[in-house]
Amino acid sequence: MELDEITISRAILTAQMKTLIDHMELDAAVVGAGPSGLTCAALLAEKGIKVGIIEKKLSIGGGMWGGGMMFPKIVVQEEARRLLDRFHIRSTPYREGYYVAASVEAVSKLAAAACDAGAEFFNLTSVEDVMIKADGRVSGLVINWTAVEMGKLHVDPLVIGCRFTVDATGHDAVVARLVARKGGDLQVKGEGFMWADRAESRILEHTREVFPGLIVTGMAANAVAGESRMGPVFGGMLLSGEHAAELVISRMKE
């Protein structure tokens, strides 16, 4: 069959425009497609919750993708190994309580789980502001192409509505900082020094609703709380994503 270039272009535009329109209102917008965001999105979508994953970069995976200093391996501790098994990510024991997994496999299987569950990805898309109305809660995200942000172009954005937003943007805590900068009752303390044990042990208590409609997870949760960083150990990221999903599910029942 001879390929028709115009048909190919129309197919892409038709399909993606429909996807965009169908996702202008979400139950949950997960901002950031790193390990905590992917875990959260996959678990939410499995429950039938309408989820959109907004990622500013071309690729997904966040800090997990590159492993440790570009060595494509990650470490997960015993407490989170069940989530590796949950997503069929193979691991090998290193010593008691520590497991090693391939970073590329981990990202790929988390992404596949999110896709299979029905979550939709919007990459190369940046969040430049939030929508807060009279009810005082985050009820929408102001989005634009990342290329517009990088080029510092004066191009007006679009808005998507969402009942809940999960800030999974890592060290930058982008959404939380937007709320704080615009005068919301929220303080972002910033990430502390490297201290893996402390950071991992406290991340679940930092994974919480920090502003009405806004839940922080992963390193964004630690950044808001002023907690330490942990490097290429990812058990806390997975557990934090799981907890964020549980929080959204619980809040949606209220």
Keywords:
FAD/NAD(P)-binding domain, single chain, eight-stranded mixed sheet, alpha/beta, 254 residues, three-stranded antiparallel sheet, 11 strands, 42% helix, 10 helices
What does this entry show, briefly?
The chain is of the alpha/beta class and 254 residues long. The protein has ten helices and eleven strands. The chain has one domain (30-252): 3-Layer(bba) Sandwich (FAD/NAD(P)-binding domain).
Verbal overview:
- With 254 residues, the protein is of the alpha/beta class.
- It has a single domain (30-252), classed as 3-Layer(bba) Sandwich (FAD/NAD(P)-binding domain), CATH 3.50.50.
- It has ten helices and eleven strands.
- The chain has helices at residues 5-22, 35-46, 62-65, 81-86, 103-117, 146-151, 174-181, 196-206, 218-225, 235-252, and strands at 25-31, 51-55, 73-77, 91-95, 98-102, 120-123, 125-132, 138-145, 158-167, 208-211, 214-216.
- The strands form two sheets. Strands 1, 2, 6, 7, 8, 9, 10 and 11 form an eight-stranded mixed beta sheet that branches.
- Helix 2 (35-46) links the parallel strand 1 and strand 2.
- Helix 2 runs parallel beside helix 5 (103-117) and helix 8 (196-206) crosses helix 9.
- The longest helix is centred in the N-terminal third of the chain and has 18 residues, at 5-22.
- The radius of gyration is 18 Å and the shape is globular.
Layout of strands and helices, then pairs:
Elements: H1 5-22, E1 25-31, H2 35-46, E2 51-55, H3 62-65, E3 73-77, H4 81-86, E4 91-95, E5 98-102, H5 103-117, E6 120-123, E7 125-132, E8 138-145, H6 146-151, E9 158-167, H7 174-181, H8 196-206, E10 208-211, E11 214-216, H9 218-225, H10 235-252
Parallel strand pairs: 1-2, 1-9, 2-6, 9-11
Antiparallel strand pairs: 3-5, 4-5, 7-8, 8-9, 10-11
